[in-house]
Amino acid sequence: MMSTKLEGGIISYKGYCIDLLNELARYLKFTYEIYVSPDGKYGSETENGTWNGMIGELLNEVPKHIVCFVCCWSVCCF
Predict the structure, then answer these.
(1) Domain count, the chain
(2) Pairing state between β 2-5 and 75-77
(3) Per-residue pLDDT, 74
(4) For 3, which of 9, 52, 70, 71 is 20 to 30 Å away at the CA?
(5) CATH number for 14
(6) What span, in angstroms and rounded, lies between the C-alpha atoms of 21 and 55?
(7) Cβ atoms within 10 A of the Cβ of 66, count?
(8) How far apart are CA 25 and CA 40, in angstroms?
(9) Domain that holds residue 36
(10) pLDDT value at position 64?
(11) pLDDT of the chain along its 78 residues, tens only?
């Protein structure tokens, strides 16, 4: 997934995962909002045993609802 910052601070996303998400949203009739973790990381365990990134956000119950998928080398996991 690639992102581009447009005029007015709007971020545009491109790539296979966004195309897949758009098709799922169209077919299943839902809307979505992309949320990027404030530290920009997926998540890894820190030296003190806590987690950062999206995993840390989930464990600390920051978002009320979260759905994420990670695409690597054309393999997608939901």
Answers:
(1) 1
(2) unpaired
(3) 44
(4) 52
(5) 3.40.190.10
(6) 21
(7) 11
(8) 24
(9) 2-77
(10) 54
(11) 788 888 888 888 898 888 988 998 999 998 888 877 788 887 889 999 999 888 888 888 765 555 555 544 444 444
DSSP, residue by residue, 2-60: EEEE-GGG-EEEESHHHHHHHHHHHHHT--------TT-----B-TTS-B-HHHHHHHT
> Mapping DSSP to helix (H, G, I), strand (E, B) and coil, where does residue 72 land?
strand
Predicted TM-score (pTM) of this structure:
0.59
SS3 label, residue 62 = coil
Nearest to 59 by CA among 69, 70, 49, 71: 49
Chain centroid to CA 37: 8
